Amino acid sequence: MLTLSDVDPGIAEIREALLAGYRRPMPGVHDELLAEDGSVRPHWQRMIDWLAEIGRPGYEDASADLLRLRTESGIAFAANGAPDAEEDTLPVILTDQDWQTLEDGILQRARLADAAVTDVYTDRRTLGAGLLPPGLVYGGPAFAAHCAGWSRPPRNWVHIYEADVGRTADGRWVILGDRVDTPLGDGWLLSNRIATSQAFADPFIELGVRRLASHYARFQDHLGQMMGWDGRLALLTSGEKDPRFFSHAYFARYMDAALIEPADLTVRDGSAFVKTLGGLRRIDVLLRGVSDASVDALHRPGRAAFGAPALSLAARSGSLKIVNGIGSAVMAHRALAPYAHRLAQFLLGEDLLLNDAPCLWLGGARARRQVLDEREAWRIVPLNSRDALLAGGAEFGVTGGSGDGGDIETLLGRFGERFCAVQSPELAETAFWTGDGLTRAPWMMRVFASRTQDGWSVAPGGVATRVPASGVPSALGFGKDVWVLPGTDPTAPSVTTTTRLDERFAQAHLRRTGRDLLSRVADELFWLGRNAERAESVLRVLGVCVQRHLDGNRTDSDPDLLCDVIEIHAAKDDTLNGAARYRDAIHRLTRGEEISSVPSILQILRSGGMRARASISSESWRYIERLCSDRRWQARGALRQNAGLVRLIEDSLQALAAFAGSAQENLTRNYAWRFLEIGRRLERGVQIAAVAEQMAARAYPQEESRLRAWLTLSDSSSAYRSRYMMTVQPAAVLDLLILDETNPRSLAYQIERLESVLHELPTEVPYRRPEHRRALKLLTDLRLFDADALAVTDEDGLRPVLTEFLTRCLSDLAEISDLISRAFFAHADAPEALLSQARLPHDEEAAE
Amino acid sequence: MRLDVRHRTHYRYANPAAFSQHLLRLSPVTVPGQRVVLSSVNILPEPEAIDTHDDMFGNRVHVATISRPHDELEIIATSRIDRAERTALIFEASVPWEATRASALGLDEATPVAELSPYAFPSTMSAPDPAIEAYVSETFQPGRPILAGAQELMSRIFHDFAYDTEATGAETLATESFELKRGVCQDFAHVMLAAMRSLRIPARYISGYLRTVPPEGQERLQGADASHAWVSVWDPAFGWVDFDPTNNCVPGADHVTLATGRDYTDVAPVSGIVVGAGRQLLSVGVDVVAAPEADGPVPSGPATIRQMQQQMQ
Lengths: 848, 313
Description:
The structure holds two protein chains of two kinds. Chain A has 29 helices and 20 strands. In chain A, strands 1, 2, 3, 11, 15, 16, 17, 18 and 19 form a nine-stranded mixed β-sheet that branches. Chain A has a four-stranded parallel β-sheet with strand order 5-4-9-10. Chain A has a three-stranded antiparallel β-sheet with strand order 6-7-8. Chain B is an alpha+beta fold. Chain B is built from six helices and 15 strands. In chain B, helix 2 packs across helix 5, helix 3 packs across helix 5 (185-198) and helix 4 (174-180) packs across helix 5. The longest helix of chain B is centred in the middle third of the chain and has 15 residues, at 146-160. The termini of chain B are far apart. The interface between A and B is large, with 60 and 73 residues.
């Protein structure tokens, strides 16, 4: 086969330039890209040719594409919203043979991890035979006593397993860490793969990279078997503040699992239920993304009651299957490493296939002595992140220096069972992209395994990262996709090309979610709707003011008038006057910390959007994400140029309109959509009433300019002109913006929509619900007004009828909001711990 | 000795609680030296569901769920217990403490004894510090018989510490009360556990009761009228032997064992969560009286009541 480089000398040159910075591999250090003689390994040829074809600008484009795709799907955002600078976009390519060895080892390792955890909580044979030291199990906080010794324990604790693996310098795979407590990084793997395969579509398709879908299909089948007919699957996350939230949300959607938080769960009669609009719904299988320590408020007592109370009871009764079982942390991280060989022999009757990086458990005096004598060669790490504090408050994974616990020797003497010592082996290297071409660095990756109906399966691929000299990669740096090439074995199953996501979505549509909507999600959608409207209102007010200011028309840009407009949202500052007051208000709305400022509102909107993500379409989410992550709103000082601000406001309004349209077009008219719509209509009603009060509560001297401002704010100028073709009249404006039910920007339209959606909410009684009655009454009264009556002014130029009606409208809407929230949203009054009776005052006389 | 126990716990809430779940360890079980004749737990308002199971430490656990609004909760546990007098033990005849440690940790070719291992390591409430380590090393010299060492440690804690209900709280750690040299039964038990576990000697936390009214002519013991706590230590020949550092005695016929664990968190008689209750007012009363030898109804006479008022947050 001819590659491009053979026929095109230009490309061959670029190809050489690409590799110029890539030193020949150091003898004895395996290199993924180059063979020992310095030639490109055959399975990388196509990628290198492609890089040469597209050249640096082409790669930069593809790379930017990938980062944008990641950002849009939210992948790049951890809790702090900051993308990691260290991530590299160039995939790692592995041959089928490379992969086969690793896969076999991981399949065994997953079985081993499960067998070890399950044994610790059931028969304890490993302890009895002296294969696992008791201190490893009982010496730290990971052991979950409330999950041990059950009369009918689950057959398996571990159903999902992840490992951090590397290749040693001689090219052999080595285990760097086991992840069994709350793995669920699959969302990360999947979304990274989708982004990479789109950005690097040509080499991805031509190389025939093995797909992930069939792996997850097998896991889904296993879960299906666990759930039984008509079972419910949920993924438990601790919420958007968790750095892993993105992965949880993505994976939940992929697996068609309800994304729930501990507050959504309640345990009754030995079963776990989620609170939905239609009442309690039983959960049969729970993918656990909340760590052991904070998953069950009842069994891990403390002042703050984290987690779903009594969750382990539902598991104990057998009604709920938890993936992975509570207590799995006991074999997490490096606990298994020192004993993997003999446990594989004992529990599986097999020789261990993959070695661990050197690791010593420090519960024994001899190991402690050795590590202290060879201090330079070892890194001392806690087995459980909760013990990081013992090592002087250092971050997990960082060597304990001198902290509260005194020197390391004393610390290990006191709490040795909770620590181990690890060595970072010299690792193989792979290619990373730099601006000048390729460079090489040690690498490692995370791989993902899950249980199937008859064993285990490993997702063909992974997420890789650079390993710095310290041996501890950044937790968020795992961004390099790992491509596994198809084998040459003709009997191997053919590659499936459908991705699982499409199939899952197709299935999800067959089941109408209906009343299964979580109460918490209804709550979130309601507020998402309200906040989107609020953002729009603030942006429109800003837009009108800035535009008028720029136009410089004397009447329209009168600072007092502009102040009146902008103070619909900006708090009044009476210490200033005229232009200064206006500038100050603009400043506060565009940059301030005030709750009504655009940056604050966008932040609230984004955080609400993230929580509600699972219920809105990914397209809708992308519009919110694009709007809220627009860096121009964060840029300090850059907004001084008003023209730039006008453009920014326009862009933002467009994104909001796109979100509204997408929600309208893409959401089925189920309860999720209804709560979004209720929030939206209710908030727009509130905004219209507030604007009307500010703009038309009295007949001002420059009333026409004011009313035009209101028409612009309401995007109804052209509707007005087409109807009246004349100067602006108060009664006509009030008719259009308050009473006209055909104008989507009128108050009447909002109330009419609100009433009609409220009509469709679930009710247990034959009569209309209280919030519905209230809306119906408001709508009826509104319909009985006429515009002239509203526009009537008294001797002081005030409009008492209008003002009174607007006030009533605002209070009715507030009450409707309260009623909805009380009736439908699970009152996430957080559970509190009961007072402890351990201590009683020594006061004999005290009586009840 | 046959004893009747009545343990009443009462919560009053500022606001009606919408939902509550309670984990109760109020039912004594039969252990060497103790036979449970009868035992019951009554809860008002009546829970919708009660789940009962035994935990890994051998305790009987009830989980009660109440999902109707309620502004008070009463839990009354009654039991009738036969307690044996402790047979006299020759503490100096027990094995060296290192042997018990080896059994718990599986050291020196010793066969690990499964029931010891969980109790050999410092827990959150029983973690040691240098001061505690220095304190215990005076008693546990190499080769010291385990029970003799435990008795001496108990006696030292009894003499070195002041019984003081004001000095510490429910979540006080062993290191804190050790520094103060003050506390109540819970603190003394945690200090003794921390001391022994710093050497990896297995030791258990026992919650239970003391006879309220002492036999005529004897002094009333500290810790009656409420749940009590002490420690138990293992010797291969004698099994688990209890030591009460609050009263400097080996529990016998006047003590009732309620629950066993690694520290207080494993045995808390009543714990749980409540939603929407606001401020909680807790009162607890315990009565332990000698029962007529013939079986009869367990008297529910006036309890000695103590009260605790504490504002949440």
